[in-house]
Amino acid sequence: MRNFRGPCVTPGRVSPEEIRALQKALRCSAGELARALKVEPKTVVQWESGELFPTKRHVDKMRELEGLEPDDSLDELEQ
Questions:
Q1: 55: closest CA among 24, 11, 13?
Q2: Helix (H) or strand (E) holding 17
Q3: Tens digits of per-residue pLDDT, 46-58?
């Protein structure tokens, strides 16, 4: 069970903190999150630093990922 209050990813712009909270909740690396979102790992790192912000499509996918349990495979969502 996850140990945080409420959703990691909120509607609208996603903050670097929310990206990191999602990764922590899913127990995944930037590379694993990037693969699940079909972006380059560099892009996730830029989101984490606040250099770039994810598009609505990526935010929607993050909300979908947020519903997973930490032990679920992110590979299932890559299809």
A1: 13
A2: helix 16-26
A3: 999 999 999 999 9
**Is the pTM value of this prediction over 0.85?**
no
Task: Give the tokens for residue 67.
Answer: 């519903």
As given in the structure block, the two tokens for residue 26 are: 């899913």
Q: Phi and psi at residue 14, in whole multiples of 5°?
A: -95, 130
Let me know if 24 is exposed, middle or buried by CB neighbors in 10 A (0-12, 13-18, 19+): middle
Rounded Cα distance, 61 and 63, in Å: 5
DSSP string, 20-72: HHHHHHHT--HHHHHHHHTS-HHHHHHHHHTSS---HHHHHHHHHHHTS-TTS
Q: Is 66 within 8 Å of 75 (Cβ atoms)?
A: no
